[in-house]
Write a structure and sequence with these properties.
Blueprint lengths: L3 H7 L13 H12 L10 E6 L2 H10 L11 E7 L9 H21 L3 E2 L2 E2 L4 H11 L6 E9 L22
Antiparallel strand pairs: 1-2, 2-5, 3-5, 4-5
Bound molecules: flavin mononucleotide.
Length: about 170
């Protein structure tokens, strides 16, 4: 098992996959990791749609121009934000909380030797509506991210993003 820091600094968006399926044990770890995220007032305002059906993956890849890599992924997760279950019923809390769950999912994928990429659904209403139509997501649920997952084809190369100038000590 990789250390936490090995995973954090190794994770990168993976957009090319081989066809190996995700095992049941891997799904268990991925989804438990996602749901371990913090959330405002511990409301956990998220739901996850696990997709491993080839036709559904291809349909989404065909209709989502920034998620074409799903056509070669063996699986994907749509991370949904559920405002009705969020703190104060607010969309903003639901989106923040579901985003944390999504990051946990990305990190868990890397820790398992898998690769994944967050592709935006929210806040692009056209893309949200594609996901709603293809996956039967209700109107009051926000499809946040479509995350293709699989074994990376080739090396994963993380970017070095550390910029000391972005750190303000004490005050801006
Ligand atoms: C909110 C959000 C939306 C994104 N949308 C897309 C997308 O639609 N398609 C895509 O290929 N990558 C998408 N990405 C991935 C980013 O391009 C990627 O995280 C960024 O370039 C940094 O690279 P890294 O993930 O390898 O560190 C998105 C990432 C985030 C956080």
């Amino acid at each position: 098992m990789k250390s936490f820091f090995d995973t954090v600094f190794h994770r990168a968006s993976v957009r090319s996959f081989n066809s190996d399926p995700i095992s049941d044990a891997e799904w268990d770890t991925l989804l438990k990791s996602a749901m371990a995220a913090p959330s405002a007032v511990n409301k956990q305002p998220w739901d996850f749609i696990v997709i491993d059906d080839r036709r559904t993956l291809d349909a989404l890849a065909a209709e989502l121009p920034y998620a074409k890599m799903a056509a070669e992924a063996p699986a994907a997760v749509v991370v949904c934000a559920v405002p009705a279950r969020a703190n104060e019923g607010k969309l903003e809390y639901a989106v923040v909380d579901a985003s944390l769950a999504c990051e946990n999912l990305l990190l868990a994928a890397d820790a398992l030797g898998l690769g994944a990429v967050w592709t935006a659904l929210y806040p692009q209403s056209v893309r949200e509506n594609v996901a709603r139509r293809v996956l039967g997501i209700p109107e009051d649920v926000v499809p946040l991210a479509f995350v293709p997952i699989g074994k990376p084809r080739g090396e994963t190369k993380a970017k070095d993003k550390f910029l000391p100038g972005r750190i303000h000590r004490g005050r801006w």
